[in-house]
Each structure stands twice: as C-alpha cells, then as structure tokens.
C-alpha cells in the first residue's frame, strides 16, 4: 500500500488523482489532503476516503467550514501556507502529489524531497523556479525521488526507460498549439478570457489553460524538461501536434525516435507516476488507432506567441531569471483573467519584468521567494501603468 498526500486536491489534477485512488484503493491510501478555497469539496473527499489530516491556505474558507459545522468528526483542518507545506513531511506519507498551481508549490516540492519522500510532480512552476535546488540529476537516476506527472514529461520519462543518456540526441516536446493556433497578432489583440479558456484538447485549470494559449506553458515545460532530464536547452525541441495524441518523443543518436501515444487524459500519467515501476489497469479507454485519423506536425509560431521564446531565453540564462519570469507571468495571467490586461499584454509584461531583473545564481528557497515577491510587485506596477 502506498500512502499518499494530495496537495491541490480540489483542482483538475487533484480531482483526477482522487479518481485514480478510488480505482486502485487496494494499492493507494490517502493520508493527507490540501486545497485553497474549496474546503467543503476537500472535506467531502476526506470523509469519503477516510482521510484524517487536511490543510488549506485560506483562513476565510476554513472559518466558513468551521461555522457551518462541515468538518467531519475526527478530521483536523490546519490553516495557512505552512500547514499546506507541512503535509509534505507527514511521517505516515510515502508519496506527495504536488498539484498546487503556481510558484506556491515550490516550498512543498522542496520539503517533500528534503524529507526523502517521492514527489509526484504536476506543479511545473516548482521546477521552473527552483529546478537548480530540486534536481541534482536526471529523474531517471535510481536515486531520484521525482516522478513527472505533466503528460509531456511523463511521456519522455517512459521513452527514456532502459535507454542510455549518452545516446539521446534530443527531446521533442509536443504542443497542441492551443485555441489560437494559426491566428495573427492583429487577430489576438482583442482575444478574451472566454476565448482563451476554450482549449481544444485538454480540460485543465484556468492558469495552465491560459498558459497553453500563449505557449508560455510550452516554455515552462522546456525549462521543466531541462531540469528533469539534465538536458541542455539546444537539445530540447518543441513541435506542434494539434491532435495531442503524441505526448512527446525522444530522438536517439542512430536517428531512431520513440514516441509516447495515449488517450488525452491526465489520469494515465498521474497513475504511472503513482504505480511506477509497475503498470496498473488502464484508468481510461485506450487510444483507438482506427479512429485517430491523421497526425499533423508544425513548428511553433514564436513570433506571434512570444511567451515560448521568452521562457526559453529565461531558462537559457538561468539563475533567478526563470523565477522572475514565472512570477510576472502568474500576475499577468491573473490580470488578463480579471480583464485588467490585454491578451498580448501578458508577453509584454513578462518581458518588461525580465528586462528589469538583475539575475543571480540560485542559492536558497528564501532568495527565490524574495525574487518572486519582487517580480510580482514589478508586474503589478507595470500593469497599473499601462
Ligand atoms: N490540469 C492539467 O491537466 C495539468 C496538466 C499538466 C500539468 N498541470 C500542472 O498541475 C498544476 C495544477 O494544475 P490544475 O490545472 O490542476 O490547477 P487548478 O485546477 O487550478 O487546481 C489548483 C489546486 O491548487 C489549490 N491551490 C492553489 N493555490 C493554493 C495554495 N496557495 N495553497 C493550497 N492550495 C492551493 C487549489 O485549491 P482551490 O481550488 O480549493 O482554491 C486547487 O486544488 C499546475 O502547476 C499545472 O501547470 C496541470
């Protein structure tokens, strides 16, 4: 029995992780749950699955649950950012699923690895911001405790199993292209949150859905791949694959390419991160190749979707710049969703903060939290002046 903690249990990845646990309750037991505002949803899951320890960062939501008497008997509800990170070091937990969104997930990722527990990682921002601290070697090394959940990295992980690192030529990270594939900058000037949230192939939380539309998500994934697989940036390539059937590929020195295909459903990579090195029964119907039709490929349009190029540049420069870039993007995406910033303003804001940042070598979590706070202030100021 693997005992797991789910951080971000009320979100898209969190809910799908709960589904995997329900299907494999003979192999998985949840010992801790954390969320943000949707405390009632978390408490219902805790009651259903017999979880005794819960945490939220939202004091308001916790107060409402207490006032409404909705905390089940025997369940403790801890409050605050520290309480959420503390679940990562619960003595009874073997695996921590980090499905928080944004740089808020960094401290929990760090605490999980420091405690010697397996980190099943969906929260890509952890690696973008703190990859230098979290990844000392490729996650394929037997000593690594990180299991990627992001579908592209889960795919690359599987393609690399049993292979020799020195025979890998390149990683090919696939992108759906998002809802605005093929549009021009002029056409995107008036893009609305509603349009950007209509992703063609994946059903995800709002922040990653906007990131997918701007291709920032692919930029974050390039940095994630660099850290997870200890791969130089010039050997990480992006290709648009609009059907999202190929989740990523690995090219080897003899010209062979291995691709990972599967149904477009995050429960497959979530389950493999939890079952590894075993494989359990499929959580969804497998891909039906007779119905798949054609597979298309195209280069990414980085002139229109500048966030991909900005993120790659931040990754290549390294140090604290990816942390600043990520924080600016989080602020800009939130402002776009609030209709305080135009769609094209997201990349402009990220670029302005990157230009203003004086990068340093990464030395500690505290330093990264300071850079993150600085970049959020810069981005807020930039947005309020434009
Ligand atoms: N969704 C996908 O298909 C997908 C695929 C690949 C990678 N990812 C990555 O997985 C992560 C989660 O994405 P998502 O789409 O599942 O996001 P989401 O639906 O927005 O869910 C985020 C979860 O985190 C909780 N949360 C947010 N901030 C928190 C904080 N400070 N403290 C405690 N809980 C907090 C939310 O709680 P409340 O909702 O209760 O406020 C929610 O449970 C992201 O890093 C994303 O890039 C997602």
Compact summary:
This protein is an alpha/beta fold and 386 residues long. Helix content is 46%, strand content 15%. The strands form 2 sheets. Strands 4-3-2-1-5-6-7 form a 7-stranded parallel β-sheet, with helices on both faces. A 4-stranded mixed β-sheet has the order 9-8-10-11, covered by helices on one side.
Characteristics:
binds NADP nicotinamide-adenine-dinucleotide phosphate, 386 residues, 17 helices, seven-stranded parallel beta sheet, alpha/beta, Rna Polymerase Sigma Factor, Chain: A
Radius of gyration: 20 Å
Poorly predicted parts: none
Compressed to H and E, one letter per element, the order equals EHEHEHEHEHEHEHEHHHHEEEHHHHHH
| Biggest pleated-sheet summary | 7 strands, parallel
Query: Roughly how many Å apart are the termini?
Result: 54 Å
Which bin fits the share of residues in helices?
A: 40-55%
Mean pLDDT: 96
| Helical/strand content category | alpha/beta
Question: How are the SSEs ordered, and which strands pair?
Answer:
Blueprint: E1 2-7, H1 12-23, E2 28-35, H2 39-49, E3 53-56, H3 59-67, E4 76-79, H4 81-86, E5 95-98, H5 106-114, E6 118-121, H6 124-134, E7 146-148, H7 151-160, E8 168-175, H8 185-188, H9 193-196, H10 206-214, H11 216-229, E9 236-240, E10 246-252, E11 257-261, H12 267-275, H13 289-292, H14 306-317, H15 321-337, H16 343-356, H17 365-385
Parallel strand pairs: 1-2, 1-5, 2-3, 3-4, 5-6, 6-7, 8-9
Antiparallel strand pairs: 8-10, 10-11
Helix pairs in contact: 5-6, 6-11, 6-15, 11-14, 14-15, 14-16, 15-16, 15-17, 16-17
The structure holds NADP nicotinamide-adenine-dinucleotide phosphate (NAP).
NADP nicotinamide-adenine-dinucleotide phosphate (NAP) binds next to helix 1, strand 2, helix 6 and helix 10.
